[in-house]
Amino acid sequence: MWDHELAELERRKELAARMGGPERVARQHATGRLTVRERFDALADSWTEVGALTGRAVYDEAGELKDFTPSNTIVGRAVVAGRKAVLVGDDFTVRGGAADAAIHEKQVLAERMAGEMRQPLVRLVDGTGGGGSVKQLEEFGRTYVPHNPGWDQVVANLGRVPVVALALGPVAGLGAARLVTSHVSIMVRELSQVFVAGPAVVEAGMGESVGKEELGGWRPVSAAGTVDLVASSEQKAFELTRSVLSYLPQNAWTRPPVRAGRQALDQSVLRDIVPRDRRRPYDMRVIMRTVFDDVLELGGRFAPSTITALARLDGHPVAVLAGDPNIYGGGMTADGADKTARFVDLAQTFSLPVVHLVDQPGFVIGSAAERAGTIRHGARALAAVYQSTVPWASVLVRRVFGVAGAAHRPHSRYGLRIAWPSGDWGSLPVEGGLEVAFKRMLAEAGEEAAALKAEIAARLEAVRSPFRTAEAFLVEDIVDPAMTRPLLADWVRDAYEVLEPGPRPLTRP
């Protein structure tokens, strides 16, 4: 009875599957990039398209369909690594991924579907995704006041479901905003670029001639913290997407997924990793790889003195904060403070217990640090830590100094805190504070100043022993470093028993 309509349905689906046509598909492949449907196939276990018939149709005089250009936004209900998810992708073969008559509605639908069905959202961004080019204004016969349809949903999803966004080509304008308004953003080395505006617009507007890699390639973009992860290929980007989602719950109302933990590595190596010479650095990532089952570091090229990572501990997903003593001694920069605040917000949103491996000498100081507003950014990080309500464990590996050191945990509530024998803490490191505190005495000592300084340093060395702090119960436990993983594993099992998932409002100065 409906054979004609069913045949027409199949014909229209076939027309939509052409995307921008063979020539433009070939051009996409020639740049080393997959088409959007190939990307969906590579990322998802399976997927079903939503709105495949949407686009611009041309009819003949008899009212029969003559030609069809599909919308350049593709939406899919998908299964990714065994879990339901919503996919939304730009089709660069149709108008370079820029907006058309239907793109806004399909993008908004994807955001609403993910948020209201409480499923993770993956955005595959390839193009501007914005309001079109200046050339279109003549076609419209008017201009318009800019607005971002559905942006309320984009923002709301940050508190509802995991959002992973991938830059898979040149991404600018609203496309770039969609990329970074996510929990984790990924780009592909040498294949994608991210900018507010591309080289041609920059040259026309600013008189600056700059290549696309120099302007928005993976080196400047990852160093700026615009993206969290850089993949070597599209396939690696999809693998990273699946990996990120594996640490996160289906939504803010559920707990992160627990799996079987791996066999523990030899923990005795931790006993010798921190050198006795406090000025010597060590590799914090060795500690992380030894203590945790697996580790996925985020934002490694941005604010590198601060380490943020997703990890598993005895199979339980956790959020890991740490300092890198090889860079500024692990000191907190303005960027590092922002990195900390954003990461703690991620943990808070998705009920990830936090493990902080602390080696914090304090804020990075100097005129450059003051010009960067380090203390203002640092206060924001401190607020994020104190506002968090997820279970928290701090391991005082070495230094804990000053206001930045005070951000090692939310002190207003219970959290597991253990210290290694290498612990060293206070308002200021002795090496930096001695000459200030005893300035007049040393000045009056004349030729004996060096000997007096050595004598004072020896007295203070005894006072700074972590065992003295433990005697006053100002640190709860000093432990054998080799016991760190067993203690944390016991804590994380208890932490998961008391997790109370659910959306949480965030307020920040």
From TrEMBL:
Enzyme class: ligase
Domain of life of the source: Bacteria
Pfam families: Carboxyl_trans (PF01039)
Residues annotated as domain CoA carboxyltransferase C-terminal: 239-508
Any GO molecular function: propionyl-CoA carboxylase activity
Enzyme Commission number(s) from the entry: 6.4.1.3
Keyword terms, alphabetized: Ligase
Protein name from the UniProt record: Propionyl-CoA carboxylase beta chain
Organism of this sequence: Nonomuraea soli
Lineage, highest ranks first: Bacteria, Bacillati, Actinomycetota, Actinomycetes, Streptosporangiales
